[in-house]
Write a structure and sequence with these properties.
By secondary structure, the chain is mainly alpha-helical. The chain has six helices and no strands. Helix 1 packs antiparallel against helix 2 and helix 4 crosses helix 6. It is globular. The protein starts with a helix and ends with a helix. 12% of the residues are buried.
Length: 124
């Protein structure tokens, strides 16, 4: 069992490296001009996570734009910053219709992507 997990992890390397190469190319394209490196590393991280978790990249490194799913994530996380000192209040707020809409859209997106990934994985 451990051997199969290690083989799976090894198979990720080439995909992660390919995203790193795209990131480096994008950073080089600025020709030494100032850029928002935090944004580009964020794109890299989410593209890698999308590829490994959902079997498809968000393609943010290629497009240079935030994918709609990431916009949903950020929208859904906004209330977490405000209510993090009071987690019990967050639970109450999530029960108010509309208050947790962004977070719920993000969860629905993730569930849909996970179902697609399971369907592909089970077809082998």
């Amino acid at each position: 069992m451990l051997t199969s997990h290690l083989a799976a992890i090894d198979s990720y390397e080439s995909r992660v490296v390919s995203f790193a190469n795209v990131l480096v190319d994008q950073l080089k394209s600025f020709g030494g001009k100032p850029l928002n490196s935090s944004l580009w590393f964020n794109y890299y991280s989410f593209d890698v996570m999308g590829e490994l978790a959902f079997g498809q990249s968000f393609d943010m490194l290629k497009t240079g734009e935030k994918h709609n799913a990431i916009k949903l994530l950020h929208e859904g996380q906004r209330p977490l910053g405000i209510f993090s000192p009071m987690p019990w209040l967050m639970m109450i707020m999530m029960r108010i219709p509309g208050a947790g809409a962004g977070y719920n859209r993000w969860l629905a997106y993730c569930e849909g992507q996970a179902e697609k990934r399971k369907a592909v994985s089970c077809s082998y």
